[in-house]
Amino acid sequence: xxxxxxxxxxxxxxxxxLFFSLLQIAALERQVFDFLGYQWAPILANFxxxxxxxxxxxxxxxxxxxxxxxYAIWASVWVTWNVFLICxxxxxxxxxxxxxxxxxxxxxxxxxxxxxxxxxVRKEAPVAGMAGLESHSYVSVVGCAIEYQYIEVLHSxxxxxxxxxxxxxxxxxxxxxxxEEDSFDFIGGFDPFPLYHVNEKSSHPLFKQSYL
Length: 212
Hints:
There is one protein chain. Strands 1-2 form a two-stranded antiparallel sheet. The chain has helices at about 1-10, 15-35, 40-60, 65-90, 115, 150-185, 195-210; strands at about 120-125, 135-140. The chain is elongated. Helix 3 (about 40-60) packs antiparallel against helix 4 (about 65-90). The chain contains seven helices and two strands.
């Protein structure tokens, strides 16, 4: 146990907080733009990801191996989720980026970047016979320097890279904690001969009693 606390004390705290801060900033940035685009499925996933990052940091600093393991499991799920998003926006198989799958079929909203990407110009024209009804306007986007699906793919690829780094980190920390737990003697601590000393001290009164 002493070695565990020594390991935690020797961790470069600025680097540790920098890494977890980077994870949180990337997750919050993703959350903000998914909120703006009303992407409900990614919003829920981002929320769980933020909670998992907090658990990972807390588990490391407070010696909670289960929290670190939970973060490692979530990191693998997070990688899988982002791989799905990449396939979704690149329309792999039967997936279509124009579907309302990410909004739980509640609305037809698309990614916020589809109308607000770099260089995009949003033009809106009312549908004939429905003037004044903005909800029935025809919206066209032109001049985009990069298509929105590639921006989303870049976001997901960045999340995958960070999640893989977090997964490796969590596995390393968990292995250190596990090794220390296996080497710890729960009866006599780290003393290699605790029972010998106890028996040696307790044997004197018994010897005197039998002698008398």
